[in-house]
């Protein structure tokens, strides 16, 4: 049985259990809508509530912060990896990474206001630290034998970096990017909930909650999860094609 069929059976089983629970009226219908209500709400949010605009804005914010975070993270991670102060710098990176992103909302609002910059810089802050850590470990855990081969072949520093160091580090960097993709969506949605915005999936979740449109609220939550899952699957596909030596 293929993995797809297994996952489909799990989804169908969970949906059936959900249907039974909602039909038994164990929980109030307002708080625990039936699957039929959720499906209906999916149609309504696209047909009447223009959720497509919110999806687009959330994805743009996510990608903007994610790309800048990845670039800054890789560059910084490489510099730290070759630095003699790696342990000291890594300590501070780990310390900053341990601060919950939500705790920084007030500081980012004071520095960047309530506009797009605050949300994008929050994503950058969250993702850059993840990528820095993984890039640094990738540099530090290189196969030393390959470096000796590079010296034997008399490769210059630029050739050594692009032909030996970077390919050796990419599996570590790639793991960091996968985590950063998931975390970037989380940060954007939470920022949209609490930092003030007119559009965005996080804003819609809060709005539907406040107006007791619970079916729509669950629909947007499920939609957000689907976007996150799709983003990760797209990256996994890219990873399998471009970084195919991972695990080999």
Describe the structure.
With 248 residues, the chain is an all-alpha fold. It has a domain of 160 residues: MetI-like (MetI-like fold). Helices cover 79% and strands 0% of the residues. It has 10 helices and no strands. α2 packs across α10, α5 packs across α6 and α9 runs antiparallel to α10. The longest helix is centred in the last third of the chain and has 38 residues. The chain starts with a helix and ends in a 6-residue tail after the last helix.
Write the layout of secondary structure elements.
Blueprint: H1 3-23, H2 35-47, H3 51-81, H4 86-97, H5 105-112, H6 116-140, H7 144-152, H8 157-194, H9 201-210, H10 214-242
Order of helices and strands: HHHHHHHHHH
Described by strand count, sense and barrel closure, the largest sheet is: none
Radius of gyration: 22 Å
Average residue-wise pLDDT: 83
CATH class of the domain at 55-94 and 129-248: Mainly Alpha
The count of strands amounts to 0
Shape: globular
**CA distance, first residue to last residue:** 26 Å
| Main structural class | mainly alpha
Task: Name the helicity range.
Answer: over 70%
Unreliable stretches covering 5 or more consecutive residues:
none
CATH topology of the domain at 55-94 and 129-248: MetI-like fold
CATH architecture level-2 label of the domain at 55-94 and 129-248: Orthogonal Bundle
Number of helices: 10
Strand content: under 5%
For CATH, the homologous superfamily of the domain at 55-94 and 129-248 is named as MetI-like
């Amino acid at each position: 049985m293929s993995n797809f069929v297994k996952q489909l059976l799990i989804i169908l089983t969970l949906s059936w259990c959900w249907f039974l629970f909602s039909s038994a009226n164990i929980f109030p219908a307002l708080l625990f809508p039936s699957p039929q209500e959720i499906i209906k709400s999916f149609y309504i949010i696209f047909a009447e509530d223009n959720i497509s605009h919110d999806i687009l804005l959330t994805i743009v914010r996510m990608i903007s912060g994610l790309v800048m975070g990845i670039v800054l993270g890789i560059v910084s991670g490489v510099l730290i990896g070759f630095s003699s102060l790696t342990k000291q710098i890594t300590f501070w990176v780990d310390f900053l990474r341990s601060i919950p992103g939500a705790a920084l909302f007030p500081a980012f609002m004071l520095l960047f206001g309530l506009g797009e910059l605050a949300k994008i810089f929050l994503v950058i802050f969250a993702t850059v630290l993840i990528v820095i850590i993984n890039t640094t470990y990738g540099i530090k855990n290189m196969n030393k034998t390959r470096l000796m081969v590079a010296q034997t072949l008399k490769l210059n520093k630029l050739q050594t970096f692009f032909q030996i160091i970077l390919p050796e580090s990419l599996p570590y960097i790639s793991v960091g990017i996968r985590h950063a993709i998931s975390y970037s969506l989380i940060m954007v949605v939470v920022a949209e909930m609490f930092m003030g915005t007119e559009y965005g999936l996080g804003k819609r979740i809060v709005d539907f909650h406040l107006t007791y449109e619970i079916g729509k609220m669950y629909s947007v939550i499920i939609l957000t999860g689907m976007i996150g899952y799709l983003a990760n699957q797209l990256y996994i596909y890219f990873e399998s094609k471009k970084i195919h030596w991972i695990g080999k």
